[in-house]
Amino acid sequence: MKKPEYIKKHFNELGYNESVQLLKEWINYSNNQHLRQKALEFLGEIDNGTQYEFFEALFLSDENIQLSLSSGRILNNNYRLHDSFLSLLQYTIKNVESIEKKLFAIDILKNLETNEARGILFNYFSSIFRIFKIEKKIIESSFHINNNSPLFSDYIEIGINLLLYDYYTNKCGYKVNLQNKLIISLNCEGSNLTRINEIAGFDKLIYLETLILNNNQISSISDISHLKRLKCLDLSSNEIMKIENLYELKNLEVLNLSNNKIENIENLDYVTHLETLSLASNNINIITHLEKLTQLKKLNLSFNKIEKITGLKNLPKLNILLLNNNKIKKIEGLQNLSELKELYLNNNSINEIQGIKFLKNLIILFLDNNNIKNFYFNDLDSLSSLNFLSLNNNPLTSESRLSYYKKTRMS
């Protein structure tokens, strides 16, 4: 069977009718989704206005959602004024189960800017609003305005959010929180996602403040530029190899990328409001590119491959620093962390207690499981706020062990 590329190249020789027949055969019978898509795209290009029923059937019934939506876009481009198109959109939002097709139809109806299209949307969302017990006056006031009115846009926005709330909670098992009838929090933990945009209607969630996607198989950070209100992003326990595409998340305060495959700390210059950053259990060797995170209060770099403490001089508000379970041999690079209250350096290769005398606000210090031999009673006298010290499982000398016990009893 002649491939779509061949048909396109030899269209003038084959003629319209034969080309259409060959392209339909590809679309209907091929298992190659890429070639089916190519065939559909070319069929949409050469369509002379006689293929409405074919595109409609494909939109409603094809198992490949991307192919169905492509067919829907062809219908919107080529048959927007067709007598049956409006009825198809109405049928889709009322009867078709696919949330992607519902949202597609809603977008087209909204952009049609006709009273009939607005009436279809009004009737559909009114039924949803009644389920959520939205006040009747809000529904009625939204109908007596034109499509360009901010109130009508708000009405559609709320309707889409409630539709997605119902879908996420009842069909997907996601945990969702609403505020003012808009989705502000979405938890898709352990949902076998391989890409963030696999979440149906994800591009509609512009009011999202918290997004939890831990314990999936997501391999890259992408398709999140619309989340300009996002404050918390949890992508821990995935397959991510690179920190990227955070440039629009200027309100982000919490970022959790623990237990991934990240080797480099990078691309954090735009998230300047970040207060908590967790990169534990990755493959990081060097602490770099944190200079812009001047609001950072908690940094977790535990369970990595870090050998030297560097790159922390511009973190004046840092309260908690976790560097446990690395390969650190020397305590250094902490002189600018005047607000540090908790320091975790357990499970490293540290030989000596040093480089911490200026941490006047330090309250908790963990140094368990290192190679420290010497500890003297007055070693930590400068740490006036310290009330917890742990040196367990170090090869302390007898004298040092005695000093340690005295110190801990007095703490």
Global Rg: 30 Å
Largest sheet, described in full? 11 strands, mixed
- Report low-confidence residues grouped into runs of 5 or more: 136-140
Which percent band covers the strand fraction?
Answer: 5-15%
Distance between the termini: 83 Å
Order of helices and strands: HHHHHHHHHHHEEEEEEEEEEEH
- pLDDT averaged residue by residue: 93
Give a count of the beta strands, DSSP E runs of length 2 or more: 11
- Please give the domain count: 3
**Helicity range:** 25-40%
Structural class: alpha/beta
Number of helices: 12
Order of strands, widest sheet:
1-2-3-4-5-6-7-8-9-10-11
3D shape: elongated
Structure notes:
- 34% of the residues are buried.
- A hairpin with a 2-residue loop joins β1 and β2.
- α6 (65-78) runs parallel beside α8 and α9 crosses α11.
- The longest helix has 23 residues, at 150-172.
- This protein folds into 3 domains: 4-166, no CATH class; 181-260, Ribonuclease Inhibitor (Leucine-rich repeat, LRR (right-handed beta-alpha superhelix)), CATH 3.80.10; 284-411, Leucine-rich repeat, LRR (right-handed beta-alpha superhelix) (Alpha-Beta Horseshoe), CATH 3.80.10.10.
- The chain has helices at 4-9, 11-14, 16-29, 33-46, 52-61, 65-78, 85-95, 99-112, 115-131, 136-143, 150-172, 398-410, and strands at residues 175-179, 182-187, 210-212, 232-234, 254-256, 276-278, 298-300, 320-322, 342-344, 364-366, 388-390.
- Mean pLDDT is 93; it is low at 136-140.
- The chain has an 11-stranded mixed β-sheet with strand order 1-2-3-4-5-6-7-8-9-10-11, covered by helices on one side.
- It is built from 12 helices and 11 strands.
- By secondary structure, the chain is α/β, with parallel strands linked by helices.
- The protein starts with a helix and ends with a helix.
